[in-house]
């Protein structure tokens, strides 16, 4: 988990869909989970828009190297750093490395996460429960704590929650619980930082075609119909989600904080 994009036959669409317009010019962004999927698409889009990128990932070195190559092809400076952000020391290291390389931090984009399907609540082991919370929500606390001294007025934080927080997910009990925590964290952190001119928002994707699901995030028997339950009848692609992160990280959303965007194939969640 979360799997290698390089090993997927039907590879996700990461390419930005439009020319850059300098919306992140001279900005520095950390993108967690940037080796593949939504993280890769977001990192490359930010690079096209003029940002310098810290590419954070767990252990998928080939995918991360490819993301760095793609960012540099857009004319951006980028570096990669592997590490488990569920460990505070790794989060501290990522932020300190970013400051050392680029001198500042303007946008913290938190996409990394993991999920494990279980049909029965009794099947969720104590180890899995702790691991899922550590990866998905503890990591966000650690990253914000490390980043906070470097975030100045105008900085942004964008967290990745999920449609499962709003609709529930019967076989993803621990995962959807972490996403509920992320949404509450986003709203509360927004109130905590708004007086300092730092905006905090979130994106809640629906079913998106990334390595996470075919590499164990969904039961194998569900993969043939993955995403078909949405009103659009298909899974989304990473490059259909990345613009939501760009909007919330840029000045385009300057009057928004504590909010959630919903690229989810047409599901109405009213949240």
State mean pLDDT (0 to 100 scale): 93
The fraction of residues in strands falls at: 5-15%
Radius of gyration from CA coordinates: 17 Å
Unreliable segments of 5+ consecutive residues: none
CATH topology: Rossmann fold
Q: Main β-sheet, in a few words?
A: 7 strands, parallel
* Structure annotation, total helices: 8
In the CATH hierarchy, what is the architecture at level 2? 3-Layer(aba) Sandwich
Order of helices and strands: EHEHEHEHEHHEHHE
The total tally of domains equals 1
Tell the overall outline.
globular
Q: Strand order, biggest sheet?
A: 3-2-1-4-5-6-7
Helix content: 25-40%
- What is the CA–CA distance across the termini? 29 Å
Broad CATH class: Alpha Beta
Structural class: alpha/beta
> What's the name of the CATH homologous superfamily?
NAD(P)-binding Rossmann-like Domain
- Would you report the number of β strands? 7
Pfam family, one: adh_short_C2
Protein name: SDR family oxidoreductase
Biased composition (Basic and acidic residues): 1-16
Family: Belongs to the short-chain dehydrogenases/reductases (SDR) family.
Quick recap:
The protein is of the alpha/beta class and 271 residues long. It is built from 8 helices and 7 strands; from the N terminus they run E-H-E-H-E-H-E-H-E-H-H-E-H-H-E.
Any overview of this molecule?
The chain is an alpha/beta fold. It has a single domain, classed as Rossmann fold, CATH 3.40.50. The protein has 8 helices and 7 strands. It has helices at 37-48, 61-73, 88-102, 126-147, 164-167, 173-193, 213-217, 242-249, and strands at residues 28-32, 52-57, 78-82, 107-110, 156-160, 199-203, 260-261. It has a 7-stranded parallel sheet with strand order 3-2-1-4-5-6-7, with helices on both faces. The longest helix has 22 residues, at 126-147.
């Amino acid at each position: 988990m979360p799997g290698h994009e390089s090993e997927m036959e039907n590879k996700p669409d990461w390419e930005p869909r439009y020319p850059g317009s300098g919306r992140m010019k001279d900005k520095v962004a950390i993108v967690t989970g940037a080796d593949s999927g939504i993280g890769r698409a977001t990192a490359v889009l930010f690079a096209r828009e003029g940002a310098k990128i810290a590419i954070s990932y767990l252990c998928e070195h080939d995918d991360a190297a490819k993301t760095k190559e793609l960012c540099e092809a857009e004319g951006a400076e980028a570096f990669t750093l592997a590490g488990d952000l569920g460990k505070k020391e790794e989060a501290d290291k990522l932020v300190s490395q970013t400051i050392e390389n680029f001198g500042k931090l303007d946008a913290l984009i938190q996409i990394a996460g993991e999920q494990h399907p279980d049909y029965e609540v009794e099947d969720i082991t104590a180890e899995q429960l702790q691991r899922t919370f550590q990866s998905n929500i503890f990591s966000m606390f650690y990253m914000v704590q490390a980043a906070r001294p470097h975030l100045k007025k105008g900085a942004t934080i964008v967290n990745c929650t999920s449609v499962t927080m709003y609709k529930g997910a019967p076989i993803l009990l621990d995962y959807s619980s972490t996403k509920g925590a992320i949404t509450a964290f986003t709203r509360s952190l927004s109130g905590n930082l708004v007086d300092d001119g730092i905006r905090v928002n979130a994106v809640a994707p629906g079913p998106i075609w990334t390595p996470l699901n075919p590499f164990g995030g969904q039961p194998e028997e569900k993969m043939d119909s993955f995403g078909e339950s949405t009103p659009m009848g298909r899974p989304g692609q990473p490059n259909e989600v990345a613009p939501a992160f760009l909007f919330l990280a840029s000045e385009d959303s300057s009057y928004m904080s504590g909010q959630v965007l919903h690229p989810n194939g047409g599901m109405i969640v009213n949240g």
